[in-house]
Amino acid sequence: MAMPDPSALEDEVLAIQSIYPGYLEQSSGTESTYKLKVHAVELYLNFPDAYPAIPPKVSSVTGIARERIEQHLHAYSGEEILFSLISMLSDEKDDEEEEQAMVEIPPTAQALKWTIGEPVHDRKSTMLGRAIQIHNKEELMAALEDIKNDKHLQKASHPQIWACRYRHDKIDGPERIIAEHDDDGETGAGPRLAFLLEVTKATNVLVVVTRWFGGVLLGDVRFKHISTAARDALDKGGFLT
Predict the structure, then answer these.
(1) Of 152 and 93, which is predicted with more confidence?
(2) Is 42 a domain residue?
(3) In CA terms, which of 93, 146, 208, 211 is 20 to 30 Å from 155?
(4) What per-residue confidence (pLDDT) applies to 93?
(5) Residues 6+ apart with CB under 8 A from 180
(6) Cα–Cα distance, 110 to 102 (Å, whole number)
(7) Residue 52 belongs to domain spanning
(8) Pfam families, from UniProt (predicted)?
(9) 99: burial class by Cβ within 10 Å (0-12, 13-18, 19+)?
(10) What is the CB-side half-sphere exposure of residue 118 using CA atoms within 13 A?
(11) CA nearest 20: which of 91, 87, 93, 113?
């Protein structure tokens, strides 16, 4: 369980406001209550001084059963909660829309299924990793285009630092491994992600790390954070053996 950290909530709020502009705002008249609005769901969370060791309390909620929110808070007790809560509410909305669209949209047009890791915070900068299975150049380009069109990433300093590794079967010869990467302006970050994929022998995967720069130079430790964010997404997606 995480120990109480007075700066944890502040750092988490700054990260959420960078990744999801307009989703979270401080309630007027109090420093410990925040309003979270995700699609049709709106709730007020009161954060204790001991957060994240003690989860926030739900003071009001509309658009979803209170029990659903409280179950989630209980499941993630002792951890930073906002990112996972937003992800849960967004996933439920996506599931509803997918069910409605299943009979209308061909399978090739369905939304891509990314595995998203936990964000890494340091001095107002945030790194967020995600991973997806790919098998060829066409799937790689489709996934990168999906990232490019994600409105939540448009304000990021470096939206898509990425590396991929996939098998290419040749009809007239043995298979070979295709490996590519891109820094997206964060010089040296792409090769580090490529090295991570190589040493872990992760294949048929694209890993992308998005960085929101908080105004404080982090030095070389930023590469450690980028690798940590990438590894977490790979692990959650089952790409590490």
Answers:
(1) 152
(2) yes
(3) 93
(4) 54
(5) 140, 163, 164, 194
(6) 8
(7) 7-91
(8) Impact_N (PF01205), RWD (PF05773)
(9) exposed
(10) 12
(11) 87
